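REVIEWER CHECKLIST
Item 1: Sequence provided? yes
Item 2: Single chain? yes
Item 3: Sequence as submitted:
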Amino acid sequence: MTTWTEGAIPVSDPHAHFQRVAGRLSRVLGAADESTLDVAAATCLEELGGFADVDVAFITLLDDDTCVSDDWHWIRPGLSATAPPIGSQLSASFGSALEVLRAGNTVVIDDLSRLELDSSVRALATANGLQAIMVAPVMVGSQLLGVMGLQVFHRAQNWERNLVVQIELLAQTLVQAVSRTRQQGALAVANARARRIAEYIPDGLLLLSTKGVVSWVSPSFCAMSGLPASRILHQSASSFFHPSHRQAFEEQMARAIRRHDAQITVQFQSETGDWRWADVALALSAEPDSGVPNEIVVSVRDVHERHLREQNLVRQADLDPLTGLANRLAFEKAITMLADRDIEVMVAFCDIDNFKTINDHFGHDVGDTVLQKVAAAIGTVVRGDDIVARFGGDEFAVVVTVDDSHALFPLGARLLGVTRELAVEGTQISLSVGVCGPGPASDAAAMRQKADQAMYSVKRNNKNNWAEVDWNPPPT
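Item 4: Structure as written out by the authors:
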């Protein structure tokens, strides 16, 4: 039986004492954080080295390419040894023994001087005076996470089977403990960097589960919404957008899960309580190690002013600048959209009587005033969802939904009625009006042409009147 030196272990019961040592080392490393890890690892290795009466005790972590990512060495005072450089291949230290370690087997050598070694490994061993070694691998699946080992210089070592087993068990605990602490430290650093970066990004950022629940929020989104992070975390992301947009947001979130990204323009509630327009981009993110998609990254960019400008430009493009009514292009787009509605409509086409004479006699400024007054008068006849447009010159088109009032107050009569009181420069204003209908909304464009024909028939018969024709669609 091996005799343990320096009173490190009672000869009568080495196994029990090893369990106490192993338990203490596990607690020391388990309690360490990134700032205390190096001291804790050095303490553990020093105790382990003294316990096993060796010259070197070490823990080495490896990356996916079996390169050294971290290394802790304890060396007996008065001796020197070379530790593997960070980033170096582990094979540079262990040669062909690396394949044994990769297979999950412990390397145990009592006396290197009795082995046939290649020249590079022999040179390394000779330089350090290395003569006996034990190295236990720690595997995660088929991946070599790291190794823990003991080395003895200038003398052979009879490694007992019981010690080998104990070191193998201890390696699992200690190597995984330092690896976990390193990963937690790296994650904390990454999170801190992400938070610092996020503070300088004006766009709001959210991380969602695939169920749409917020798991992280950037300071910028907290500022945009006026809510503390505690009010945002663990809530459904759709709840922060306008109620009328929540279903659309959830649909785009489902699209992002299917197709990896999506975009939508919605309104969110700002810190002032106002609803502001935002461009929202959603991207599916995968867990780095497994590659399994498990998170949705959402960016929220406030585009309220830009959106209002764009809406205003669209309105301006659709409006007649003089009267504020829809222009001809907007009218045609509107009646095209009516085709999807299962409603009955009446369509009127109006022309101002003797408008050229008014323009020639009083000038264009007075003519413009006439157009504005007629447009305002026609606006009193229609409801909010009806359509009124200036078609160009002195012509106007109207589309109204048919209701019970039409039988008592026909559309043509109403249009004439609101203009009979209009006068400019002492000149009475009148209209010639053609009306077609009722008919389905899908036929509104063709009905407008029939109303136009009816209006010209009124023009030929003394003007200041209206005519209504039934809608009889041509046979298909």
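Item 5: Key structural point noted by reviewer: The chain has 16 helices and 17 strands.
Item 6: Recommendation: ____
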